[in-house]
Amino acid sequence: MKLRVKAGETSFVVALDETPTSKALSKVLPFESVAQTWGEEVYFEAPMSANLEPGARQVVEPGTACFWVEGSSVALPYGRTPISGKDGKPKLAARCNVLGRIVGDPQLLAKVKSGDRIRVEAA
Q1: pLDDT over 70 for what percent of the chain?
Q2: What is the CATH number of the domain that holds 73?
Q3: CB of 118 closer than 8 Å to CB of 34
């Protein structure tokens, strides 16, 4: 399954993996939220909750779509976060469930600003 995310003036697609959290997310589509940023990460609340999955990670590749369990939010890192290590890879605030991957260049997320309206729907 794929999601279309419209964030401010930016639009992109997320290809979802087959995981319990991605399946739960697809069941609450469409929904709207408000973008927040943390370093080179965009995140936004989703109207669902999930448990931490066995494959949850804190350090991911840029463009990995994640679900932050504690914040009930989708996290989309595209570069360094305030707690990234010397390798510069995105380090999330906590271990997160991996949902899938942004299709294309994740650097387009740099155009998204805190407060931008977000709409998530099936692609």
Answers
A1: 100
A2: 2.40.100.20
A3: yes
